[in-house]
Amino acid sequence: MKLKTSQSIAGFTLSEMLVSLSLSFIVLAAAITCGVSLQKSFTAVDNYFSTQMQQIRIIDYLNRDVKRGLVVTTSVDLQSVTMSVPKYIIQAGDPEAIADPETIGMPRTPTVAYTTSGWQVNYSPSMATVVYSISGNSILRTENGVVTTIASSTDQLVPKSTDVELANTEYAKTSVTFRPIFTNTDQSAGTSLYATAYLRNKRRG
Amino acid sequence: MRISQRTVAPGNVLLCVLCTILVVSLIGGNVLLNCMTRYNVVSSQVRSWKESLDAAETGGDIAYAELRKTISNPTNAFSPSNGWTYSGGAYANSPVTYGQDNLRTSSRVDPFYYDGNGNAWYRIRTKGTAPVLGLKRVGMDDRMGPNTRGDSLLRKIDFNYDHFVATYGPNGDGVGQTLVPVVDANGNPQPQISRRVELIAAPMTPFEAAIKAGGTFYGLGSAAYIDSYRSTTGSYDASVKTNPSDPRYPDSRSGTVEINSSVATIQGSIYGNLYTNGGTITKKTTSISGIIDNNVPFSLSPFAMPSTAGWNYVSSPTMITPNTTINPPVVNGVPRTGSPESPNYYLVTSFANNGNLTVNPAVIGGVAQETYLAIHVTGDIGQNTSSQPTITVPPHVHLEVYFDGNFQTKAENIINTSGYAGNLQFYAISPTLPNGAPDPSVQQTVDLNSGGGSTSGFSAVFYTPSANFTINGAPDITGAIVCKNFYGNGNVHWHYDRALDSAGDAVDYRILSYVEDIR
Predict the structure, then answer these.
(1) What CA–CA distance (Å, rounded) separates B45 from A74?
(2) Do A53 and B42 touch (CB under 8 A)?
(3) What is the number of structural domains in chain A?
(4) CB contact, 8 Å: B41 with chain A?
(5) What is the pLDDT of residues B64-81, one digit of tens each?
(6) Does residue B160 carry a pLDDT above 70?
(7) What is residue B340's DSSP assignment?
(8) Is A6 in Cβ contact with B4 (below 8 Å)?
(9) Are A57 and A33 contained in the same domain?
């Protein structure tokens, strides 16, 4: 028996090669573009979520301090918030800590005094000062000179939107807004978070 | 037979497809992982953090409600039947579980200070705990920089052990640190967040205005006036209220009248504010120096006899006769002075119509001591308008008189020679039914019907929220009155002492301070 071998194997013609290469480039370009876009989207979503988490954290930090604060004031340019809070915990350098280092980190027992404005509860002779401020894309919390960066956005925090309004020093209304960096077409687009916290203490100052 | 050999290899295409799917899946997986982590933080950890504060404040409310019972219902305050125990000078309750998320809260209440009136100030420490559901992992936001602290500095999650007890002990005072696993109600491991707040409950004293009427008001005479001063800065001077250059002028115009009714007939001059509940008072028809606000409702709770558990009971006298003098009891050869929170306590079952009570201070080494007494009269003090019971209180004596019935006498028969109204305090115990509820069928009265002349009068305070108060004549009064309905038609000169705003028994509690323990 004689086997018949096919002799029809042949290469592509030049035109076929050009067409196939062109198609391959188009497909490859589309794939690369999709990949880059997906990566951009991933980064943007990651930044968006991260910044939103930081919005929540800023609000939570502020509200916690406002609730235990005695006085809350906002700078005229709405760039910083200053509040006085009781020194509840003994810290290094305090007179009690110098007298007995083992008291560091322990709570103080309050004292009571009658003043011309009525009864007053004191945890220590002086108050702790807490300042929230904007530094570039970061929000700083400074308590008695100790700085902590509580939020550092990879997206653009809109500085003027950190807005604390005080009415009769009874409550603080806060909003934090950021603008996602992937938004090119609409500069006003962004996400805002609002909160209202009431000062729990009766004392002012 | 002829066999055809195929030399086309399609595996390359499949490989490309698989690689593409892999890349896309990796990217998608990363997105999902990040989304899940963020979702976990937002839906579980942030929520639990907020809920734990809600639980802690709920515990504060529970303790505060119990604390108010020490005024309105002392026998049932901090009752074991409600889960409260007393140990080490503090009340504590067993954890209360509530809500759909099984939040838990517990409280500890201890009196940490007694003021000059003997009223206790309480510190309320509460702990609120919320379970952390979802994935047992930390957030991703501590990664932002070397000095950046994200969630873990703010929201301290106990994944395995209670970090607070391990570091500071169960009461936060550095005593009894131990590892306590965090578990749910069934004893199964359960991450949780606990937040702690400390509240200070301060007693509210009753004499914050010259006259406070829970019902109607009529008075005073057309030539009467109500003004004020502050005894801690000097004695009363009638000319101060019309002399703005006097440094005591600001204290001279706080003779405030508060009326929880629209029925108010105002006569005379008020150097202070006037508040009514729906009244129509205007400055055109009255002489009032301060603010007029016709929309200030308030309520007066019935007054119950305070707990005498810590007081020094003295068995005699039990009756006030026409000639009764109380000298402090002598203990171990020394007259007992008592104290604001633990006065010498007398239970009197009869106060004669012509009773004459004199209370002397303790004298030690020839020097009169500040002496504190409380007398509970279980009936009336004076039984008709001709009654003339007399009470005499010299300097250094601080007397509180509690009475269950009515009070009738002349103004000049209330003799407080110290001149400070806070040294002579009268409290009318509200009538109650056998079950302890207020008895509306019994109307208490305080009747100073024969008010005496302008040179007579008294220095005293009355807290009689269930009694109708009547005063006639034109006495000179230093003090404050809280009553139900007020009636006075004489040309009374009424001087409210601003120092009284911190005097008297507690009639309620208010939260004065709030601190969160952020350790």
Answers:
(1) 30
(2) yes
(3) 2
(4) yes
(5) 999 999 988 888 899 999
(6) yes
(7) S
(8) yes
(9) yes
At residue B443, what are phi and psi to the nearest 5 degrees? -105, 110
* Interface check B502 vs A, CB under 8 A: yes
Q: Positive or negative CA dihedral for B171, B177, B178, B183?
A: positive
Domain boundaries, chain B: 29-204+511-517, 211-508
The span from the CA of A32 to the CA of B153, in Å, is 41
B403-415 pLDDT, tens per residue?
A: 999 999 888 889 9
**In terms of residue numbers, what domain contains A112?**
87-126
Q: Quick check: is A5 in a domain?
A: no
DSSP conformational letter for B45: I
CB pairs under 8 A between A and B: 135
Convert the pLDDT of each residue in A2-56 to its tens digit.
555 555 666 778 888 899 899 989 988 998 888 788 777 777 777 777 777 888 8
* Structure ipTM over 0.90, yes or no: no
Same domain, A154 and A188: yes
Q: Token pair of B271, please?
A: 């150097």
Sign of CA dihedral B62, B67, B70, B75: positive
* Cβ of residue B143 closer than 8 Å to a chain A Cβ: no
Give the separation between CA B9 and CA A202, rounded to whole angstroms.
Answer: 83
- Kindly write down the DSSP assignment for every residue of B72-93, as one continuous string: H-GGGTT-GGGTEEEETTEEEE
Same domain assignment for residues A201 and A132: yes
pTM: 0.79
Q: Return the closest-CA partner of residue B280 out of B259, B300, B299, B298.
A: B259
Residues B432 and B74: their CA atoms lie apart, in Å, by 14
Q: How far apart are CA B24 and CA B490, in angstroms?
A: 94
**Chain A residue closest in CA terms to B499:** A116
Same-domain check for residues A53 and A109:
no
